[in-house]
Predict the 3D structure of the following.
Amino acid sequence: MLTAEQNELLTRTNAGTPMGELMRRYWIPITVGNRLKAGGAPLQVKILGESLVAYRSPNGAVGLMGEFCPHRNASLALARNEDCGLRCLYHAWLIAPDGRVLETPPEPPEVNLSDKFRHTAYPSREAGGIVWAYMGPEEAMPEFPEWIFKPYDEANIYVTNAFQECNWLQGVEGDLDAQHGPYLHYTDDEAHTQDGLQNRANEYIYDQRPKVAAAKKPWGLQTVFRYLHKDGKAATYWIHPFVMPFFTFFESNLLDTEGALMHAWVPATDESHWVWSVLFCEEAMTDDYIEFVDRTRGYGMTDPENNWRVTAFTGKGVGFEQDREAMASGRTFSGIEGILQQDLAIQYSMGPISDRTREHLTSGDIAIVQLRKYLLDALAAFDKGGPAPGTEPGSQDSVYFEALTSTPDHSMRELANR
């Protein structure tokens, strides 16, 4: 378990906090690209405690800047979206994508504020259907993470995100928890799906005592989950890396279609975060495939009218719809439909920031222990002036090949088999 001080260190991400400053050294997913219309309304978004607006200019370029106009703090979510930037409705100040104040119409012509100060604005890019931004100091900007998308065309990528009302670390730790799957995620439908797969790589539902191993890497943590199959003989080894600062990956063979799944837990505030699920497939995704993913995994079940919360979120009690009759009949273990919703319900139930001083960890929590140790070590090294892990020039290829294309070597297999 962590001390109260360590828990604070890992969970606080606003500007000026150690974890917040470390996270700002990476390219960060901001919003799903198709939510921004060319020349349309800017989109309010909260990232790392900052109130921002994302937008797509009439010429198609994406941008990200502070929400409140530097003149009198009017919201730029109301702004006119012009080719040169956002124009505030209050006094028509025009703010360029790089934060320069280009025009101040009420002022005399000789007044020029473009060199006086810069409004908050961040370098932005669009890739894989995602708008990304870099929110750290210019001199420390790393390479853009092209490695995430190398093997795939955008037509083979399905992107969703949802808003979750609890701290980001609860999400990451949930994904590195190998033991909850056969319990929390058990449903008759999921068992039927896994029984019907020709490729057994997604079979995990029947091993109630899975094994896990973890190894430190320059870019994060490599973990391996071992799940015995239904026959109790063969086993699947999931390669499941954690990549700084908040990504995880694993292979996905849903409906026997080869691919991979990326998750990300991007802090909105200290008590909320954005949950990303990005599915990559070797084959073009059909409507039937996307419908299957949304129904069984819950990735697309979000409500744009409720800040992109998942539709099963009620906001009452522990926050999620639960079918007690389905639990009693044995049809589901949790009474909650959809793998994403099941995960979010548990994470939400821990409270806005889980009190990790009250935990009692066991041998099955080794990946959680190693994750916390890795993050604390990374913060200590960063505080001494070291680089953010995995951002060194030329590190992208090593992340891709080590994290996503490796197989568990003998030592990792042995650890996972213990």
In short: The mean pLDDT is 90. The domain at 146-417 is CATH 3.90.380.10 (Naphthalene 1,2-dioxygenase Alpha Subunit; Chain A, domain 1). Residues 366-383 form the longest helix (18 residues). The chain has two domains: 27-140, 146-417.
